User: Fold this.
Amino acid sequence: MARGIQISHLSERLESIADFCDTEVMFAVVGGKWKLLIVLYLLRGKHRFGELQRALPADITHRMLSRQLREMERDGLVHRTVYPEVPPRVEYELTPAGRSLKPLMEQVESWGSWYRKYLRELAHKADD
Amino acid sequence: MARGIQISHLSERLESIADFCDTEVMFAVVGGKWKLLIVLYLLRGKHRFGELQRALPADITHRMLSRQLREMERDGLVHRTVYPEVPPRVEYELTPAGRSLKPLMEQVESWGSWYRKYLRELAHKADD
DNA sequence: CTGTATCCCGTAAGATACTG
DNA sequence: CAGTATCTTACGGGATACAG
Assistant:
């Protein structure tokens, strides 16, 4: 175990992404329905489970948030800290791998913004 | 209609991605199981349906290839040209929006490559 | 050669309830 | 507060056959 990451699960994951080309790997690890939003939020800092749930769209269930976080932990993107208190407190933060997504996310975001404009312009031309 | 893109479908698509943040948009348009590989192949140039099928992993059915291409056409990433011949010949090529993905794809690929190494190193440390 | 229609299946995701 | 168990649903994707 290094930095709290479940290594055994990492090698599992290495196997399971073996079929993917390098370009597909990112989709494999942040392609879940909520994972992108989770990464974006955690890029702002360490947060508790409840904070995440409130920060994300209302229709994410408790169960799904938990699952997506576990998968991201298994993939070495997120580190989970449990404080042995009552009531329990759990904090999530990005690992170096998680933080390394930042510049990429910015690129992806600006492409998305550009693409939206592109679609609107085409739709506009169609009105002529 | 501009450049052969189905504009009516574009406005449809504009609606359907309205719920996504800009960062999610890219995943919405190239997140299909084979779309990434299709983009990568078409970045090399215009290709026929059959060429695509042979270039992609053997387990993609022609039904799925057809569907993914149609969705990408609807999203304005791919342009489809039908030659009125017998037997029919159809060629696919990227639109400007499709080609605009190139630098992003390169970033995504190099992140994927880096991430693989990162996982291997962590797994290696675990052996110590 | 390219494409669609029909039917089927597996898995991601949601609802709900219960636990430490 | 955080998490899991169980059950269910929805949907992307696959097999196959047929058509222009």
